[in-house]
Amino acid sequence: MITAEFYHKNGQLAGFRFIGHSDVSEAGTDIVCAAVSSAAYLAANTITEIIGVPADILVEDGIMSFKIPLGRAPECGAVLKGLRLHLAGLQEQYPTNIQITDTEV
Fold first, then answer.
1. pTM (2 decimals)?
2. Were 17 and a residue from 10, 50, 65, 73 both cysteine, which residue would form a disulfide, CB within 3.0 to 4.6 Å?
């Protein structure tokens, strides 16, 4: 299962951490893992490379963590909200493979 944890600070999204694999199919052919990974990289690259906000990023097998400086949350809110909305849609389609949680930081 993929656990998608979204970080909130004072009502604003400030990052995320995705852990695990969906186990829908074998590595390299898993469409759910591919969808989650692609969305996460799109959000991270948009924030860091297009908007220009630095981030604390960790990428390892089965883990992606992304945190922005708390004062920069307003600039990145739409991107992070879009990512969360996308993951919620995937969770509706694959409820036994994706779990979304929210954490106040």
1. 0.94
2. 65
Residue 87 belongs to what domain range?
A: 2-104
Contacts by 19-23, CB closer than 8 A, 24 or more apart: 19/62, 19/63, 20/62, 21/62, 22/94, 22/97, 22/98, 23/97
Q: What is the pLDDT of residues 3-33, one digit of tens each?
A: 999 999 999 999 999 999 998 888 778 899 9
Q: How many domains does the chain have?
A: 1
- Residue 85 sits in a domain of what CATH number? 3.30.70.1490
Torsions phi, psi for 69 (to 5 deg):
-60, 135
